């Protein structure tokens, strides 16, 4: 493979002396599916604390905890009824404090989800809003509107909910008559907050300080391109295809002209968040940003807004040299203009697991292993979803086991995200594989996962877990993983290769035949070489 010197990135990010998050490996813990410490079949914070030794062994720099705040769990924690408390399903504040302290003792940062776009319908604010009259201060914290038509029975506009059906629900007033409508871009149990109301920003500031004072190192901001709504809430000429979710990766991935998201006023909200966080040195924020346009994406990580932005292009890319290279180039270009740090992820709690997405079976696993090396070779921050390091596939669950609100709200036409949320297998040969001391788990575990448990993979040098452990260690300690630029190399059709400025070369073979490797000493490969050549669906690191 000869150098393709015409293509390289601009200077886009930090060197080794810059903040910890600029080259960190984050590990996303979906708490209800990670480890159960009390035998009720649902993972909890005690379970996370029990497994910190494993995470230290894996070598990650930081945890990202999906929502653990007080919630009725209509959307598994993303409907928050008290943002300054821990839900009893997961433990309490004392357990959270202990987790933070022990993680810090192990040199692991702790970040957590923040949900500023909406609350639970059982939040005290919304309960008060339902009891109050139209036009009241209580209702002004949310987005209430009169309906259209002579009797107000038509929703205020034609916006749909992400979870199916209209984005509006009509309330019954205190006198028993049909009344106003409230906006919920997600489930009806998740009313959108009115970010034009100063009370909303003040309450979020209290929440930020509450957790930062307890030692939280940062926040993942849910729907970071939401919150701000367009003036007048106008109707939109919806494209039916735009609203179709062809895969779980597109749950929030509609077009950039969607009026529900990416309105200019959102940037003032992020500047307010950043102002608070600047008072706590060493803390960071990363936003969930479903924005396609590179320039508009970059606006979210300007120096006075978010520290990092989730870019989902790599998770959305089909397995192939051209698509993966395009995803990398776009991701780096999106942050280059504002001097930001790129982020990389292959999956999360909303995205079909990469093993399944890349074809399933042995082929899907081989490709997922190869893409793990591609992801970990790139400059910037990497986010690993719990179970990816075990090579877990999605699980095809029976209809009666599905719990994602997408399933019900779509009239059983969209199966939702439960398939990537099945609990982690830790040990043993049968469900629940050490996940819980009880007999049942909140989502059923497959009977054929014995070879995928942590226990089975820890001592197997060829396992996916061992591959991740080795790759993370090399990434953390080898000087070749330095520099914020990459250069692309000329490659055979169906292959790609790039070089970090520190000296690491990463090659990916997305063809169905072995290929020669670039010059250099092989540091690590995702599959055994074939007579010195890189096999199909594999990647290698060279120095």
UniProtKB/TrEMBL annotation:
Q: Which GO terms describe its biological process?
A: oligosaccharide catabolic process
Annotated Pfam families = Alpha-amylase
Q: InterPro entries this protein is in?
A: GH (IPR017853), GH13_cat_dom (IPR006047), O16G_dom_2 (IPR045857)
Molecular function GO labels:
alpha-amylase activity; isomerase activity
The chain positions of domain Glycosyl hydrolase family 13 catalytic read 28-421
The alphabetical list of record keywords is:
Glycoprotein, Hydrolase
Residue ranges spanning the membrane: these are none
Which residues constitute the signal peptide according to the record? none
Query: What family does the database annotate?
Result: Belongs to the glycosyl hydrolase 13 family.
Q: Which PANTHER family match?
A: ALPHA-AMYLASE FAMILY MEMBER, NEUTRAL AND BASIC AMINO ACID TRANSPORT PROTEIN RBAT
The identity of this protein, by name, is Glycoside hydrolase family 13 protein
From which source organism is this entry?
A: Rhodococcus spelaei
């Amino acid at each position: 493979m000869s150098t393709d010197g015409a293509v390289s990135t601009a200077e886009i990010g930090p060197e080794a002396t810059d903040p910890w998050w600029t080259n960190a490996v984050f590990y996303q813990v979906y708490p209800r599916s990670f480890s159960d410490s009390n035998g009720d079949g649902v993972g909890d914070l005690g379970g996370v604390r029990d497994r910190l030794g494993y995470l230290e062994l894996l070598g990650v720099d930081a945890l990202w905890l999906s929502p653990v705040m007080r919630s009725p769990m209509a959307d598994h924690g993303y409907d928050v009824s008290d943002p300054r408390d821990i839900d009893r399903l997961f433990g309490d504040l004392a357990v959270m404090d202990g987790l933070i302290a022990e993680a810090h003792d192990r040199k692991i940062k702790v970040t957590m989800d923040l949900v500023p776009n909406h609350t639970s319908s059982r939040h005290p604010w919304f309960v008060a809003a339902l009891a109050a009259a139209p036009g009241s201060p209580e209702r002004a914290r949310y987005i209430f509107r009169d309906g259209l038509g002579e009797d107000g029975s038509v929703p205020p506009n034609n916006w749909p909910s992400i979870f199916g059906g209209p984005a509006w629900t009509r309330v019954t007033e205190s006198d028993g008559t049909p009344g106003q409508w409230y906006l919920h871009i997600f489930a009806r149990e998740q009313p959108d907050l009115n970010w034009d109301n100063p009370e909303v920003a003040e309450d979020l500031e209290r929440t930020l300080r509450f957790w930062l004072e307890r030692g939280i190192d940062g926040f993942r901001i849910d729907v970071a391109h939401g919150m701000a709504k367009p003036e007048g809430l106008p109707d939109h000429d919806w494209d039916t295809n735009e609203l179709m979710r062809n895969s779980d990766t597109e749950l929030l991935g509609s077009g950039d002209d969607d009026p529900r998201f990416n309105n200019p006023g959102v940037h003032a909200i992020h500047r307010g968040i950043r102002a608070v966080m600047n008072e706590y040195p060493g803390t960071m924020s990363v936003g969930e940003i479903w924005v396609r346009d590179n320039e508009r994406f970059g606006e979210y990580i300007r120096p006075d807004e978010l520290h990092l932005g989730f870019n989902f292009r790599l998770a959305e890319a089909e397995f192939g040299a051209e698509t993966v290279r395009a995803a990398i180039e776009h991701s780096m270009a999106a942050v280059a203009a504002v001097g930001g740090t790129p982020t990389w992820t292959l999956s999360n709690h909303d995205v079909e697991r990469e093993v399944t997405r890349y074809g399933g079976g042995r082929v899907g696993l081989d490709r997922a292993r190869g893409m793990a090396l591609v992801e970990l070779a790139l400059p910037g921050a990497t986010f690993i979803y719990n179970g990816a390091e075990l090579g877990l596939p999605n699980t095809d669950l029976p209809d009666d086991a599905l719990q994602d609100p997408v399933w019900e709200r779509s009239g059983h036409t969209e199966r939702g995200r439960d398939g990537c949320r099945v609990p982690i297998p830790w040990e043993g040969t049968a469900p629940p594989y050490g996940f819980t001391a009880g007999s049942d788990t909140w989502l059923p575990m497959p009977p054929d996962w014995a070879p995928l448990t942590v226990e089975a993979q820890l001592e197997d040098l060829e396992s996916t877990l061992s591959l991740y452990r080795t790759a993370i260690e090399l990434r953390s300690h080898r000087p070749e993983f330095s520099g914020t630029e990459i250069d692309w190399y000329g490659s055979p059709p169906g292959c790609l290769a790039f070089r970090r400025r520190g000296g690491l070369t990463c090659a990916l073979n997305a063809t169905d035949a072995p290929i020669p490797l670039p010059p250099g000493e092989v540091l690590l490969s995702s599959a055994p070489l074939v007579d010195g050549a890189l096999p199909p669906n594999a990647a290698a690191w060279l120095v």
